[in-house]
Each structure stands twice: as structure tokens, then as C-alpha cells.
């Protein structure tokens, strides 16, 4: 799934803009197939097997989930008109409280505590922004600072004393938490691994991607995926969702129709906090087994970027998170050589872009894309690897590039971040 | 309504500040005068820990051990401060200033992150002896304690080469700064000197001023998983707490070994589940250096200049807990001797 995102969105979804129609299922499938062929070709040419290996896809999924959950949290809040830059703080609360309950009572109670911790952060943000009308950015930043300070302080008390300390807790880290159960589909996973090992063009790549999705899949990842579906259904298919979104588009109009805007905003922001808390708890329990100070590492902000990339929609957001997870995992697993292979993919993408722009008679953009493609191709051919400084920037550069390419199509909820007081429309 | 808004904004901002301040205040006032009789009072040791402070099971704890030992022997009241993740150079200067201006001598800064702060503060207090762990800061009243971690990493490399079955070995660095590159250099040299045909794959978790690579176990785990899939069967991680992620991942694969860093990670209770996969650890004994310095001040001949703690004086070593390297101990001992005698020159940069 995530492998497809690198190639697809920029080059091929754009024609949809002109006709203003939604992408139909066959078109999406075609894009996915095209992307897979492109990636398979890159693997065959460069020999960078990690581009489609099952380990890479599994790793990408694990990297993508916290970012995706943070984005989903932002989506809920911003759809109701509240900018939530405090996601990072809510994630910190989630990872801290998740680990605190998790090491004592197991991962499930930990997950619950993480969600509640994050939701409390959401509640604070809601009180400040909705009831008191504090600027959303100010409140969000304050919340992140508050969460950092509070968890640092509490970690000293809770993780560095008594039983916690003897089990390996310290002021920066919680004692270890038991593992979250994970799923491996019996029969299918080994068979896919077998096919993957042959390194056949396209077939093995497909097996690798599918294998990554069905091997050692954490239950928490499954829950996160379900939450994406649930979000879409609730926000776009139920009256509750319609009212909630109306609070983000035109709160005064919603109010005139009898919607209690404050209540919907509260619900959205608290849910948002809970989702961010889940993201934090995921970080503390699935890729790691403990809370670590600074563990969230800015993922709350990257989640916001993924949400904007996804045009405030769950599907696009999942692609954004997948793209980030894919490149991040790739550079961590295989460093220079893998990032080097991505260069070729970028060349392919730019060539496609140039052809498309040319056919639409925007010659300047076509030439620009072609020149960049040529330069990158030259770089690709002249070197074997990429300096590590560039490699670790890969996920950020990839996100930035795609954001830049798709920025024209983005539309945020109309009343997002605007102050709203009850009865202001009178 | 506007007033309410402003009031609330101010309230929240104040609360946030107050809480972050509490977090730092709690650590700042934590002075452990437990073992001191305070009657003597001649020796006032001030120590500023890096993030994590006392109880981090790593180099801060090691420094604290040296301090405790010295306090027990020489008496006096130590004052301990701890840095936070968010601290800037100015904050760190403030810590050192607080200690020095209150008459603490020596003042020990634990961690290379204090280097800039120390550069600014040391000239202001010429009569105070300063010390810094893991960095070299010039100055007539500064004891720069450097640890020959490339030497212990060299030994770790030898152990890795002797234990690897695939001949493919991995190194995970937290951040690609000079300090960690020294680990990499020694380790690579140790491997290739022992088995020239062996290959070392290097992966850093973050670069430049982004220090997140020291505190991201998930990134450590990803990097280790990538290495295992390439057929690597011994992974040495010099990556702070990110290393726990890689140790966990390596432990899940049968026959693969992890090598720990800084403290004897076999003994870390948080890693008890995985300790049977921890081959050894390249240990840095900060306590030796801290004790040496306090003793020298106590004797009236404060250590200054660049003091290196290496294999020869027990500043660095290879942990033996678990007994997994017992069979190759004679070879390791022979190489240790060669390093001490200068027969083997360990590289500082890759």
C-alpha cells in the first residue's frame, strides 16, 4: 500500500483536477498497478531489494501508524474548526500514560490509559480554545510545553522509584512493557516469503508488499487501520459527522440550524486527543517496549503535514503517512543504497510529469521537470550512494516535494482556526 | 469576553511555564548530602548531569558512582543539577554559573553537550577547577576527560569478528557526530584487523544537530531489522537509549548477537529478557575519571588539561557478564596488551 504512494499521487491524480471528478475504482487500481511496476523496475535496475521487501513494508507500516494516527487526530479536530498544533503534546501524554499503565497491567490497559491521557490533553485544548476562545496556536504550543514538563516531572517520581526502578525504570525511561500480540497469517505468509525469495520481476515485488502486510502485523496496527475506516464512515456518512463538519465550515450557519457548535467542537477535540494518545501509546508499545523521553520526536507535527497533504481526508492522509513511513523505514533499514534507488524513482516521476505537462501545453513546467529529471539521472549514474545527511532527510524531502506538487489542490475547512462565539451571527 | 480570553491565555501560558519550571526545579534542588557530615565542608563538589541525571543506568549514573565514592572518602557536600532535553547552551551556562558562583569546587559537567557552556563560564572563575566528560575544552582550569572509546570499540569489533558466522557485521550509531564516529572507527578497525574479509555495514539514526537518534528505540529497531535481513548476525549499537530497540530486535533472531555500549547492558534490568543475546558491552567508566578529579582537588593538585581514560588505566573496558566471550578472552587479552603497548594504533576517525 505504502509503496504505491511514492509514484502515484503527483503525476497521475492531477488530471482529475481538471475535470473535477472523483477518481473511480478502476483508475485507482491502474495507478496502483503503474506504481508497482515502476517500483519493481527500480528494484530490478538498481538491485536495491529492500525497496519492495516484506521487512521494509512491515517496517514502513510501523513507522506510518503513529504519524497516521496523529494526522487522523488533526483531521477530527480541524474538521470541527479547531487547529490542533498540540498533537505533539497529546502524543507525549499518550506515550507516557500508556507506558505507565502498560508496564503494570499489560498493553491493553496501557492503550486505554494512553487514549485517556491524550483525551485529557484534548480536553484542556478544548476548554482553552472553545470555551475561552484562546488563539488555537497559542493553546496548542502551551499544551505541548505543558505535556513535556509534566511528563518529565512525573517520570522522575513514577519511573525512578520502588518497583519501577528495580525493573529498569529511570527518569528518562519506563520499565519494559509486555509485547502487544501480533498476527501472522499461517500458510500465506511463508508462501509469500517463498515467492519473494525468487526475486522475479513484479511477482516477487507483489509478494513482498503483501507479505509485509500479513506478517507480524501488530493488533494495534489493525485497530489503527479500522479507525481510518471508522473515521470516514462517521464523518461523511452519519448525521453526527455532517454536523461536526458543518462546525468547521460554517459554524454560524450550523448554529442557526440548531447545532450546538460548542458541544461538537468539544467532542471533536477530545476525540482528537484520544487518537493522538493512541499514536503515542503505539510508539511506546509496538516498535519499542517502553516510554522514552523525546520518543515522539516531532511526529505530531509530521502528522499535521500528512493531514494537509491528504487534503483533510482520511484516504489522502493515509497515503501521506504511508509515504513518510516508507521513506523513513527505507533510509533506516538500508541507508545510502536504498535512498540512491529512490533517486531513479524520482527521475521516472519527473519524466512522467514532463510528458504530462507537455501534452497540456505548459511548456515551461515541462522543460523544468525534464531538466530536473536529467540532473537527477546524472547524479544517479555518477554515484553509488547518497551522503548520510541527505539520506536521513529523505522522508522530509519526499513529503515536502509531494506537498509542493499537490498544494494547489488543497482546501482546508473554511472556518478552521477562526474564533467562534455562540450567537456571533446575530 | 475579550478580557476573559486574554485572562485565559495568560493563565494557560503561566501554568505551562510553571510546570516546566517545576520539572527543572525538582531536579535542581535535589542535593544529596546524605553521606556527608557537612562539618568538614572543605570540599564542595558541584556536578551538572546531562539529560536523565542520576538513575539513568548509563554514564550519568556512572559519574554519580564516582561522586559517591569520593564523598564517602573525603566528606563534603555535593550539589547536583540535571539538564533537560529542551535546555539551550544558555541554560547549561546558568547551571555551571550557579555552581561556581556559590563556591563549589570542582565543578563537573557530565556530557559533551556542556562544551559551549563551559567555554563561556570557565574563564569567569579562574580559581575554580572545572571538568567536562566526553569533550575537550581548552583552558588552564579545565580537566577535559576523554574516554578512549575507540579502543573499547576496537575490542568489541574483535569479539564481533570472532563470533560472527556470516562475516557480515553491523554498526548502528545514534547521531553522526565526531564522538560516535570514533566508536565506528575503532569498531571497523577491530573487525577488519581480525578478519580482513568481513564486511561492516554502518547506519546512523539521525544526523547533525538532530539528536533524536539517541532516544528513538523504534528507529534503532528498524535499523537492526534491516541489518538482520541482509544477513548481519552481530550488531553493535552506540546510540543511547535507541540501542534498546536494536537489542530487542536482535534478540528475536536466533544466533544473532547484540553488543551494548557505555554501561554493562547485560546487567540492565530493563533488558533482562534479552540479556542472553547481549554478547558484551563496550563500557565507559566515568566514575574512575570523576573520582580521580575529586581526589586531585582534595589533594590540592587539581588535574587540568586533556586527560584520557583508556584501556591502560581502566577508563574503558569490555564487559564480561554472561560469559559469552569467555572462550575468546585470551585473544582479547592479547590484543588489549598490544593496544596498551602501542603496538596497535586505534583510529579515531573512520
TrEMBL record, chain B:
Domain ABC transporter substrate-binding protein PnrA-like intervals: 49-348
Membrane recorded as keyword: yes
Signal sequence interval, chain numbering: 1-23
Major site of localization recorded for this protein: membrane
Topological category with respect to the lipid bilayer: Lipid-anchor
Record InterPro entries: BMP_lipoprotein, Peripla_BP_I, PnrA-like
Subcellular location: Cell membrane
UniProt keyword terms in alphabetical order: Cell membrane, Lipoprotein, Membrane, Signal
Keyword Cell wall biogenesis/degradation: no
Family annotation (PANTHER family): ABC TRANSPORTER GUANOSINE-BINDING PROTEIN NUPN, TRANSCRIPTIONAL ACTIVATOR PROTEIN MED
Family per similarity comment: Belongs to the BMP lipoprotein family.
UniProt protein name: BMP family ABC transporter substrate-binding protein
Lineage: Bacteria, Bacillati, Actinomycetota, Actinomycetes, Kitasatosporales
Amino acid at each position: 500500500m505504502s509503496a504505491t504512494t511514492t509514484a502515484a499521487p503527483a503525476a497521475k491524480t492531477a488530471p482529475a483536477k481538471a475535470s473535477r471528478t472523483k477518481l473511480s475504482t478502476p483508475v485507482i487500481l491502474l495507478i496502483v498497478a503503474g506504481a508497482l511496476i515502476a517500483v519493481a523496475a527500480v528494484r530490478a535496475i538498481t538491485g536495491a531489494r529492500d525497496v519492495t521487501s516484506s521487512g521494509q513494508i512491515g517496517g514502513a507500516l510501523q513507522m506510518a501508524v503513529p504519524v497516521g494516527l496523529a494526522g487522523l487526530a488533526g483531521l477530527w479536530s480541524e474538521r470541527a474548526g479547531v487547529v490542533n498544533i498540540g498533537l505533539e503534546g497529546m502524543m507525549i501524554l499518550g506515550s507516557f500514560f500508556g507506558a505507565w499503565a502498560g508496564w503494570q497491567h499489560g498493553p491493553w490497559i496501557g492503550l486505554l490509559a494512553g487514549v485517556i491521557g491524550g483525551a485529557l490533553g484534548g480536553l484542556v485544548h478544548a476548554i482553552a480554545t472553545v470555551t475561552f476562545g484562546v488563539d488555537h496556536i497559542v493553546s496548542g504550543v502551551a499544551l505541548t510545553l505543558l505535556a513535556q514538563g509534566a511528563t518529565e516531572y512525573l517520570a522522575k517520581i513514577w519511573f525512578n522509584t520502588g518497583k519501577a526502578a528495580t525493573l529498569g525504570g529511570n527518569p528518562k525511561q519506563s520499565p519494559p512493557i509486555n509485547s502487544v500480540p501480533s498476527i501472522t497469517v499461517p500458510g500465506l505468509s511463508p508462501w509469500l516469503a517463498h515467492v519473494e525469495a525468487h526475486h522475479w520481476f513484479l511477482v516477487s515485488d507483489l509478494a513482498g508488499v503483501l507479505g509485509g502486510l500479513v506478517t507480524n502485523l501488530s493488533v494495534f496496527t489493525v485497530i489503527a487501520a479500522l479507525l481510518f475506516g471508522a473515521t470516514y464512515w462517521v464523518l461523511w456518512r452519519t448525521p453526527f459527522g455532517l454536523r461536526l463538519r458543518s462546525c468547521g465550515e460554517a459554524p454560524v450557519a450550523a448554529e442557526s440550524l440548531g447545532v450546538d457548535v460548542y458541544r461538537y467542537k468539544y467532542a471533536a477535540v477530545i476525540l482528537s486527543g484520544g487518537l493522538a494518545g493512541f499514536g503515542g501509546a503505539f510508539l511506546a508499545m509496538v516498535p519499542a517496549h517502553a516510554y522514552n523521553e523525546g520518543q515522539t520526536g516531532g511526529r505530531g507535527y509530521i502528522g499535521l503535514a500528512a493531514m494537509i497533504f491528504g487534503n483533510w481526508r482520511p484516504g489522502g492522509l493515509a497515503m501521506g503517512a504511508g509515504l513518510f513511513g516508507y521513506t523513513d523505514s527505507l533510509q533506516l533499514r538500508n541507508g545510502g543504497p536504498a535512498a540512491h534507488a529512490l533517486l531513479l524513482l524520482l527521475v521516472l516521476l519527473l519524466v512522467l510529469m514532463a510528458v504530462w505537462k507537455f501534452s497540456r501545453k505548459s511548456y515551461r513546467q515541462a522543460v523544468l521537470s525534464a531538466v530536473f529529471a536529467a540532473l537527477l539521472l546524472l547524479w544517479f549514474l555518477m554515484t553509488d550512494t547518497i551522503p548520510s545527511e541527505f539520506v536521513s532527510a529523505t522522508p522530509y524531502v519526499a513529503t515536502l516535494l509531494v506537498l509542493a506538487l499537490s498544494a494547489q489542490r488543497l482546501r482546508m475547512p473554511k472556518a478552521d482556526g477562526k474564533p467562534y462565539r455562540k450567537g456571533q451571527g446575530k | 469576553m475579550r478580557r476573559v480570553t486574554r485572562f485565559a491565555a495568560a493563565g494557560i501560558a503561566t501554568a505551562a511555564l510553571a510546570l516546566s519550571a517545576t520539572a527543572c526545579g525538582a531536579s535542581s534542588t535535589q542535593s544529596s548530602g546524605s553521606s556527608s557530615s557537612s562539618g568538614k565542608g572543605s570540599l564542595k563538589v558541584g556536578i551538572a548531569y546531562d539529560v536523565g541525571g542520576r538513575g539513568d543506568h548509563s554514564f550519568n549514573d556512572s559519574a554519580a558512582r564516582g561522586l559517591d565514592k569520593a564523598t564517602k572518602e573525603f566528606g563534603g557536600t555535593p550539589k547536583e543539577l540535571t539538564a533537560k532535553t529542551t535546555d539551550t547552551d544558555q541554560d547549561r551556562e546558568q547551571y555551571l554559573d550557579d555552581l561556581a558562583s556559590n563556591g563549589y569546587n570542582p565543578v563537573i559537567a557530565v556530557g559533551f553537550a556542556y562544551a559551549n557552556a563551559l567555554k563561556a563560564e570557565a574563564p569567569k572563575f579562574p580559581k575554580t577547577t572545572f571538568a567536562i566528560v566526553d569533550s575537550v575544552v581548552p583552558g588552564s582550569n579545565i580537566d577535559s576527560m576523554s574516554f578512549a572509546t575507540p579502543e573499547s570499540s576496537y575490542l568489541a569489533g574483535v569479539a564481533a569478528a570472532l563470533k560472527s558466522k556470516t562475516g557480515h557485521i553491523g554498526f548502528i550509531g545514534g547521531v553522526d557526530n565526531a564522538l560516535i564516529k570514533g566508536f565506528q572507527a575503532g569498531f571497523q578497525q577491530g573487525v577488519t584487523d581480525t578478519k580482513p574479509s568481513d564486511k561492516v555495514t554502518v547506519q546512523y539514526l539521525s544526523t547533525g544537530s538532530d539528536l533524536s537518534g539517541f532516544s528513538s528505540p523504534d528507529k534503532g529497531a528498524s535499523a537492526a531489522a534491516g541489518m538482520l535481513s541482509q544477513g548481519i548476525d552481530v550488531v553493535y549499537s552506540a546510540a543511547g537509549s535507541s540501542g534498546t530497540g536494536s537489542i530487542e530486535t536482535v534478540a528475536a533472531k536466533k544466533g544473532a548477537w547484540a553488543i551494548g555500549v557505555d554501561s554493562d547492558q547485560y546487567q540492565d534490568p530493563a533488558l533482562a529478557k534479552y540479556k542472553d543475546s547481549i554478547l558484551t558491552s563496550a563500557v565507559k567508566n566515568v566514575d574512575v575519571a570523576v573520582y580521580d578529579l575529586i581526589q586531585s582537588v582534595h589533594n590540592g593538585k587539581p588535574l587540568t588539561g586533556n586527560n584520557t581514560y583508556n584501556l591502560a588505566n581502566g577508563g574503558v573496558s569490555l564487559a564480561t557478564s554472561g560469559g559469552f566471550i569467555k572462550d575468546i578472552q585470551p585473544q582479547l587479552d592479547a590484543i588489549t596488551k598490544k593496544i596498551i603497548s602501542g603496538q596497535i594504533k586505534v583510529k579515531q576517525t573512520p
